[in-house]
Every structure is written in C-alpha cells, then in structure tokens.
C-alpha cells in the first residue's frame, strides 16, 4: 500500500466561460461523424450514424423493459455502493487510526485487492446464479478497496496538530472521531466514494453482461446477439450517460459538503 | 558577469554626478484589467551598476509592474526599454528572482541542474554549463551544495540558489520581486548584503521590489515610492550613502533614520 | 506513507505484518480440509490444482497470451495518454472545448464496449488490446491533462523569463512537475487494464487466464477455478510490486521531498 492518495483535483471542473466552445465542439464532432457515415467512410453496419443511434435511443426510451432493466442496474449499483461504504469506511477509520491494525492487514489487503473482481464472476455465478445477490457480491468485492484505502490515507494524513488540539481539550475518542478524524479524512473519503462509484457501475454492467443477470449489461449482450447495432450503440450511450450522471452527482455533493476544503475554495486571482 | 554589450544609447547623470548609462527605463507604463487601473503613467530610469528599489503599500501593483518589466506581462500603454530596445517578451538580458523560492526552484532537479537550466536554452555546452554554474554558486557561497536538492536547503540558501541561477544566466540586470519576504530577519540581512556585494563585485544592475522600507533605503541608490490610486510614482528619492554600507552602521546613521522616516510618511500619505 | 510508521524492532515488525496472512492461510487449510461445501474446497486441493494446471508446460501459453495483451494495451494507453494529455494540457482552450466529449467517452464503462469490440474487430488479440487500451487510457489521459495544467504559475514564469525552449520545458519542467499525477493515473490504469484483460478473455476468447477460470467453472472443476483466481492474485500482486519499483525510481525526488522536514 505504497500509494499516496489520489488527489482531489481530478474532479471534473466545469467553467461556464467556455460553454459556447464546448457546445460547438460537440456539435462539430457529431456533424463530422454524420458526414463520415453519410459518405460511407464509416460502415453503417458496424458504426451507425448518430441519427440512427438517436432513433434507436428514442425507441428504447419508449420501452417498458428498458426502464425495468435500467432500474435494476441502478438498484444493483446503489445497493452495492452502499454496502461497500458500510464496510469500507469504518474499516478504513480503524486501519488509519491504529498502526498495529494497519500493519497487520497490509499484506492481506494488498493481495486481495489485486485480484480483479471479474475473476470472481464464475464463483459468484455458482453461488447465486444470475441474480441481484450475484451482482452485489461482485460490486462489493471490487469497489470496497478504493474506498477503504482512501479512507485509511485520509485518516493518516490528518494534521497531527488537529489531533493534539483535540486531545488538549480532552475530547473523548468518540468525539475525536466525529469532529476531527471523520471531517479531516472526508476529502479523501469523498474521492474514494467517487472512484468506488465508477468501479461499481463498471462491475454492475460487467456482471450483467457475463452473468446474464437482468439489467443494462444484459441488454447490451442481447443487442449484440441480435446484431442490432444502433440499439447496441444507444445502450452503450445510455450507460455512459449514467456514468456521467453518477460522477456529476458525487462531484456536486462533494463540493457542497466540502466547501471548506482548500481544493474547493475559490482560488485567489493573481 | 554581465555579457559584453555594444549599445550605449542614453547617458545621464550618475549617482556622483559622473555620467552613467541608462540600462532600463519605464516610459509612461500603465496596466489595466478591464476598467480597473492597476498603475498609470509610471516612469522609472535605472542606470548601469546601480540598485533601484521600489516600495509601496501592499496591493499597489508592485509585482505587476515588475512582471511588466520582466516581459512576462504586457503593459496596457507605454513601454519598457532595455538598452534602448522595447521589451515585448522576456529578454535575454534580464533575470528574475521570484519571491517564492520554494516554488521557483524545481524540486526534481539538483541545485546544479536548477542553476544550469536557463543555460540549456542558450545552447551552452555541458562543460561550460558546469563551469558557469559552479562560478555562480561560488558567488553566492553555495559551491558545496551543488549536488543537493533545493528542498534539502534552508529558505535562505534556496533563495541564494535562485540568485545563482539568475547570475549564471549572465544578465545585465537582476529583477527581484520581494526576494527576502519569506526568510527570517538574520538571513534577510545576510541576503541583503549579498546583493550589495554582488553589485560591487560583478557590477550588476538590480531592480528590487519590496514592501520593507528599511530594506529599500538600505539597498537602494535610488528609491522609487509608489502610491495613489491608480498607483503612480509618488516620489523618487536619491540615497546619498555611497557604496560602503553595513547593516549596523548604515542603519544607525541619523540621515538613514531621517530618510526612512520620510519614505514611511510618503507611503502613509499615499495610502490614505 | 511518510508518517505514522513508528520504529518497531525489526523481528516484531515482521511478525506484525505476517501474522494475519499466516492465520488466514492456516484457518483455510484446517477448516477447508474437511469442507463438505461444493464451492469452498480445501486449500490443499486448490494448491494441487494450481501445481498441475499452472506450473506445467501447457500453462505458459495462457499466461503469456494474457500478459502479452496486457503489456501491449497498457503500453499503448500510456503512450497515447501522456502524449495527448500533455498536448491538451498545454493547449488549454482546446482541452477545455473537448472536455465534455472526453468526459462522455471516459464514462463509457469499458465492459460495455466488449460486444462492440467483438462486432468490429472480431475475436482475437486486436479486440482485446483495443479494449484494454480504451479502458486504461482515461485515468492516464485525464490525470496528465490535470497535472500539466497544474504546473505552478511561478514555475511557468521562471521558464518563460529564462527563455527555456519548448523541448526542455516539456522534458525538464512539465513532465516532471506533472509526474506524480501521471503516475497516480498509471496506477489506476494498471488495475483497470488487468480487469479488462480477464473480462475480455471470459467473453471473446479461447485462451488466457480468464478463459481458463470460466472454463473450469463451467466444467465444475472448482479447485481449478480457485487456482486460476489464486494465479490472478499472485500476478496482480507481482505487477503491483513491479509498478511500485518503477514509481519509486521515477519519483525519487518527490518521495524524498515529501519525507524531508520542511524548514
């Protein structure tokens, strides 16, 4: 566990100033794609035009089974993430506060987290079949680690000064944890949540695809077997949008909750 | 240290009435950001081999002015002349020593590599680079620290490295932006004397921005007091102490105290 | 880990790090020995399967195939990610205008692209390498952009006022300055790349470690399935150590600096 924690700055920052440029760039890229499709530079059987993907997407949006699958993916993802957080945050607080715990678990955690969670798909399938439980097991196995490590680093990087301040005012252990350790570590925890959320979404869709559990991933697999390429693209686009939404959601929450932190303060102009 | 130069354009009266050459002059410079005017109609002349200090209340745009002189910013109006030529981009004959030494030195390079960095751009060969870096480090008394990293040195030593880097570049003038603002008092007076010493030994021209009035008077042959809103040159003070200055003696002289009191009052008035 | 590793006497420290793995191993060995469960088999049989399946001549092909794809995809992602990242980080307006597109592409779950990869590139190494590259590209690219943009304003002023030419600016200022962040991105990418390798072998392949694991499960060869997972754990751990070694060397200045007491 050599890694220094990943910095906050990677968060997607949006600036209103370049909005026009951004919209124009997206429009230009789509227009170029459309043009390449229309002139048959891109084979419509493998890469369909944006318009036909849009038609497929509109059709999907009108289907009940699609929304059902969408809901299942969302449920699996959020339950899995919640479960991971419930395990990883307390464990991270403990490992970060106690050097003995940290050193005892270092090797074990290091080893377990390097096993790619997809390697567990066969086992999870054996145990639970194509169910939500199967998804949950995989999601937790994959997304518990980033959150655990980030929480741990977060606790370990807390300025010793704030701990000493807390001790000199004789705050007890519970209050120290609540008022010093948890807030002090929270920027790192927040980054961990974001990484874990992305990981969890990836695993949800992956589990659905390999394990044929109902959800967006399975829909993607079905579209492929049916060779319905526009639908395949539309589904991939929907899952990407879900990813964008998940990330945007956590960035917003993080900004609100951690407005006090340096990384979120408005930078003083030169 | 200064490279040979052929241009001798303007000659004015030097500090002792001797003719002296104008190295740098700011002509009617003015800087605006939108409608906000930082400074207006600044005129400053710097003669060769002299130390010119710029003081002013904080927020007066001293750093902005220095960045304009350094060619890092373009003035909104007016011009900066270096050896008679307008400065449009960072000129080769100027070296800047920035305030924040912990950020201006590259932490991934050794002290020597930091000092050699600007010479690479000039296409100086390896051997010559070594030699010049060594000479510059020796000038600031750090020849034994060449293989260390900047962050292994104290703040004062880091600022010496930054000065050595500037010297190795072989500039005609050294621009210093509050160079000693973040070091302790003892180190500060050592570094002040280093500047005077370098000027005496190498004949280098120095423009130094500071908010410390004692420092401005102690170091400067000329002190430019900025003030007003937008900032203008409030007063130009000639310092009559000559070249022999020392921390204890000079600062105790009645005329030093008198001078610094006058400058302080100007700044106070300018602020109100 | 600059702080918080108080000096334990060496043997004690070793014991502290080793007891949990030993206990877990022993517990599994003992408890698993009489296991009736179909799925949680004894450690002895797993190790036995590991020996016959992975420490034999036939195994090399599977392992090599996985590792070759991993290496190719990861190297490609690193090269493209850093080059493009530096360009977009320096050309700020371009980078910002492309922001939404990059954000969208990055959010495409790598696994969702597998059916598409199969469709376009078919079954084979090309498809796997393309997928690995795609998955591993984003953390490197985005971290590089961020790291390049984050180069200290004072450092930028220094390189401008000392007229440091572009190529030195890139190699001696921009890249080292962004280094820690680039490496952080590469670390994230490595684990993504490993995941995508295994995943792509489970669906579009007849070779590789992922394929072997899924095959074992389909044949109800449970010890072999566990052995495959164990192999992935070991390989992942070794790759991590190798990565750490490279990182240790590349960022030696950074490590020493953060450890040094600041005056």
UniProtKB/TrEMBL annotation, chain B:
The entry's keywords: ATP-binding, Nucleotide-binding, Transport
The ABC transporter domain, residue ranges: 24-253
UniProt key word Transport: yes
PROSITE patterns named among the record's database cross-references: ABC_TRANSPORTER_1 (PS00211), ABC_TRANSPORTER_2 (PS50893)
GO MF term list: ATP binding; ATP hydrolysis activity
PANTHER family: ALIPHATIC SULFONATES IMPORT ATP-BINDING PROTEIN SSUB, TAURINE IMPORT ATP-BINDING PROTEIN-RELATED
Name of the protein described by the UniProt record: NitT/TauT family transport system ATP-binding protein
Organism of provenance: Thermocatellispora tengchongensis
Automatic annotation (TrEMBL), chain C:
CDD domains: TM_PBP2
Keywords for the protein's UniProt record, in alphabetical order: Cell membrane, Membrane, Transmembrane, Transmembrane helix, Transport
InterPro entries in the cross-refs: MetI-like (IPR000515), MetI-like_sf (IPR035906)
Highest taxon, organism lineage: Bacteria
Membrane-spanning parts: 12-31, 71-91, 103-123, 129-148, 192-214, 226-243
Pfam families given in the database record: BPD_transp_1 (PF00528)
Keyword Transmembrane helix attached: yes
Annotated localization: Cell membrane
Membrane topology: Multi-pass membrane protein
GO cellular component terms attached to this protein's record: plasma membrane
Chief location bin: membrane
All residue ranges annotated as the ABC transmembrane type-1 domain in the record: 63-243
GO terms, biological process: transmembrane transport
The family this protein is said to belong to: Belongs to the binding-protein-dependent transport system permease family.
Protein name: ABC-type nitrate/sulfonate/bicarbonate transport system permease component
Record organism: Thermocatellispora tengchongensis
């Amino acid at each position: 566990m050599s890694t220094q924690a990943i910095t906050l700055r990677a968060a997607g920052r949006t600036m209103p100033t370049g909005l026009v440029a951004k919209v124009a760039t997206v429009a230009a890229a789509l227009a170029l794609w459309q043009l390449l499709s229309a002139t048959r530079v891109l084979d419509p059987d493998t890469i369909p035009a944006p318009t036909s993907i849009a038609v497929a997407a509109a059709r999907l949006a009108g289907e009940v089974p699609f929304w059902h699958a969408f809901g299942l993916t969302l449920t699996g993802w959020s339950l899995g993430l919640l479960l991971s957080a419930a395990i990883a945050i307390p464990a991270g607080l403990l490992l970060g506060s106690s050097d003995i715990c940290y050193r005892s678990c270092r090797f074990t955690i290091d080893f377990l987290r390097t096993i790619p969670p997809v390697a567990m798909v066969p086992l999870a399938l054996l145990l639970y079949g194509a169910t939500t439980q199967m998804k949950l097991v995989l999601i937790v196995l994959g997304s518990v680690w980033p959150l655990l490590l980030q929480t741990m680093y977060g606790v370990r990087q807390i300025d010793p000064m704030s701990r000493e301040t807390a001790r000199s005012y004789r705050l007890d252990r519970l209050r120290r944890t609540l008022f010093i350790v948890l807030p002090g570590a929270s920027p790192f925890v927040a980054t961990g949540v974001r990484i874990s959320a992305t990981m969890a979404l990836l695993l949800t869709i992956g589990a659905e695809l390999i394990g044929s559990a109902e959800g967006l991933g399975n829909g993607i697999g079905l579209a492929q077997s049916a060779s319905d390429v526009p639908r395949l693209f539309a589904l991939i686009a929907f899952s990407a949008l879900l990813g964008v939404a998940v990330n945007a959601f956590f960035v917003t929450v993080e900004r609100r909750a951690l407005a006090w932190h340096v990384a979120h303060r408005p930078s003083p102009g030169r | 240290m200064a490279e040979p130069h052929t241009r001798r354009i303007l000659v004015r009266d030097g500090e002792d009435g001797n003719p002296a050459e104008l190295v740098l002059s700011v002509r009617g410079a003015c800087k605006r950001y939108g409608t906000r005017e930082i400074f207006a109609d600044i005129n400053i002349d710097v003669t060769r081999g002299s130390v010119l200090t710029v003081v002013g209340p904080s927020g007066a745009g001293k750093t902005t002015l220095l960045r304009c002189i350094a060619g890092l910013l373009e003035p909104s109006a007016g011009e900066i002349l270096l050896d008679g030529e307008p400065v449009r981009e960072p000129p080769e004959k100027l070296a800047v020593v920035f305030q924040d030494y912990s950020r201006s030195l590259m932490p991934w390079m050794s002290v020597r590599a930091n000092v050699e960095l600007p010479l690479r751009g000039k296409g100086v060969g390896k051997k010559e680079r070594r030699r010049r870096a060594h000479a510059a480090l020796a000038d600031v008394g750090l020849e034994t620290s060449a293989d260390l990293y900047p962050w292994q040195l104290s703040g004062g030593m880091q600022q010496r490295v930054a000065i050595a880097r500037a010297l190795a570049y072989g500039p005609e003038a050294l621009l210093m932006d509050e160079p000693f603002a973040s070091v302790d008092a003892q180190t500060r007076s050592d570094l002040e004397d280093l500047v005077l010493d370098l000027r005496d030994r190498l004949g280098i021209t120095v423009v130094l921005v500071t908010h410390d009035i004692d420092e401005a008077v102690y170091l400067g042959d000329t002190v430019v007091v900025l003030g007003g809103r937008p900032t203008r040159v409030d007063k130009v003070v000639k310092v009559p102490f000559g070249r022999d200055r020392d921390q204890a003696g000079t600062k105790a002289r009645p005329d030093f105290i008198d001078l610094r009191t006058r400058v302080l009052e100007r700044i106070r008035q300018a602020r109100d | 880990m600059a702080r918080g590793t108080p000096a334990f006497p060496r043997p004690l420290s070793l014991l502290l790090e080793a007891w949990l793995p030993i206990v877990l191993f022993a517990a599994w060995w003992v408890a698993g020995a009489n296991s009736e469960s179909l799925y949680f088999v004894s450690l002895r049989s797993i190790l036995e399967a590991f020996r016959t399946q992975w420490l034999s001549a036939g195994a090399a092909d599977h392992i090599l195939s996985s590792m070759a794809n991993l290496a190719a995809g990861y190297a490609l992602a690193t090269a493209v990610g850093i080059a493009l990242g530096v360009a977009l980080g320096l050309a700020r307006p371009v980078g910002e205008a492309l922001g939404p597109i990059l954000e969208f592409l990055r959010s495409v779950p790598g696994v969702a692209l597998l059916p598409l990869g199969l469709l376009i590139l078919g079954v084979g190494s090309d498809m796997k390498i393309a997928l690995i590259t795609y998955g591993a590209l984003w953390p490197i690219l985005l971290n590089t952009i961020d790291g390049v943009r984050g180069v200290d304003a004072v450092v930028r002023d220094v390189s401008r006022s000392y007229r440091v030419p572009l190529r030195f600016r890139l190699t001696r200022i921009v890249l080292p300055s962004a280094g820690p962040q680039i490496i952080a991105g590469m670390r994230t990418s490595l684990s993504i790349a490993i995941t995508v390798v295994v995943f792509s072998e489970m669906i579009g392949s007849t070779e590789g470690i992922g394929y072997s694991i899924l095959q074992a499960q389909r044949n109800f060869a449970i010890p072999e399935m566990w052995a495959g997972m164990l192999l992935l754990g070991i390989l992942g751990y070794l790759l991590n150590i190798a990565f750490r070694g490279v990182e240790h060397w590349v960022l030696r200045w950074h490590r020493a600096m953060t450890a040094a007491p600041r005056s």
